[in-house]
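Regression test attached.
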Amino acid sequence: MELILNLRDRIVRGETSVRATVEAAVDAAEKLNETLNAFLEIDREGALNRADKIGAQLSSVTNAGETPSLPSLTGIPIAIKDNICVRGMQTSCGSRILGPYHPPYNATAIDRLLNAGAVVIGKTNCDEFAMGSSNENSAFGPVKNPWDTSRVPGGSSGGSAAAVAAGIVPVALGSDTGGSVRQPASLCGVIGLKPTYGRVSRYGLVAFGSSLDQIGVFARNATDAALILQTISGRDPHDATTADVAVPDYTHELKNDIQGMRIGVSHALLGEGLDEEVRVAIEKAIDAYKDLGAEIVDVDLPHAKYAIAVYYIIATAEASSNLARYDGVRYGFRAEEAPALRDMYRKTRDQGFGAEVKRRIMLGTYVLSAGYYDAYYLKAQKVRMLLRQDFANAFAKCDAVLTPTSPTPAFKFGEKMDDPLAMYLNDIYTVTANLAGVPGISVPCALSSQGLPIGMQLLGPYWSEATLLRLTSAYQTAHSFTARPEIFAG
Amino acid sequence: MNITEADIEKIAQLAHLDITDGERKMFAPQISEIVTYVEQLEAIDTSPVEPALGGLTREGERTESSRPDVVEPSLGQKLALDQAPDPASGHFRVPKVLG
């Protein structure tokens, strides 16, 4: 699938129709789903109906002899992670506990995409309730990595990452609580952007860790990411944590001149546990930025090494509270043969949740339980404050910090499933942004000797998405990542 | 901190999870390992530090989140009950509460 602006131009010029564009995406989704398992629902009928309506509006304008002035995403097919509510489609969160749940409303981000003319073609597979780094925690089977189907696509938004990497859609939405957009983007060779906390409304995003969750964007280039971010950002009365901060024209700010911009590098983060090929790729990316005129400065994030410990206290505590609502009463799955209410709750939750979700609910319950709150939760919130201060100090010296996104390229299925802590350590570079609330982007920068994508991560100060996109665009213009998986659809 | 199978059972009760013997045996060492890992935070001196509770950004904290208390249309009974596993006469029916 082509990039947004190409598609839109061809639609406006009449070289292709909205229907043909959407149909191509749906065809590719259906065909590749047998291999990738990236979609949990593909809405052929709904997507084509909507495409026809948009097409009819377009031709009535064109027939009247006017040059169509179209909303920015007219006819653009998009895939949505199955934990973001789209009216008329399912929302399963990759879990059995939601049963056949169909939300009666759209997430704010979805309303904004629809108002801009986008067409949702389906809901993408993910780790159950967005808890996981490999997609192996989906109740509906894992997504396969389009580059090598014996490997994980990353998680939790693996389906959205795979759908963009495989060329099914130009763009997709995911959610990022500890790296769930950036890490799968890195493992699948696409861009993944997590905005500043409060930039995009969480209304209609199923809650996991409410102080960490943010809807994010998958795309293949900076312009497409900018177009989507621009559409979905901004204050929403339905989400009190959205901030009243003006949304810049992100595409307008996409200049490739980064002369004199300062990029921070923490050498402490490029040591132990980092795959050698990833380290080399990151060093090359640093050199590439030097060649583009950026200044490289040393920064120190002394508390980053504690980020996983802080994250797995705060995220699980918030999850244990947020997931208390799944009780078999108002919607979703209810266990049979439970004679009393309390049994029904317990059996429903035991049968409805998978192992990782139970593990996290129990961890969160434990750290919040009487006598332990100060030792775990309050302590973690204090170290979180120290980490925020680390970032504030770093950003006093630079415009963005460059790190790897993931310590390794995509790993094999089953490799880490028996060792939850080893799986959690995949998120070492990404959880910091969620804890501090700062924006981050993963950008493909190399292929490993086994032909697997490697991503670099850029982290910026609050509300610096325009800077991150500009750095991405400059890098991609100079070092275009043109490799595609063999199964790439058009 | 070593988390025993008895601890796991107690936590599962608190979390309303009716876990199996197999799960209890699997979770005890795994959760022990994770709790031991997060206890590395004890080594950090946080005595002068305020916890990061509340808004993450200054702009977010400054954003006015109160609004006039105006009656607006709600979901309505039909839609609210539409997804219920066991709706009955305009209510959510559940198994008996006592007993």
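Expected vs. actual: identical. The longest strand of chain B covers residues 87-88.
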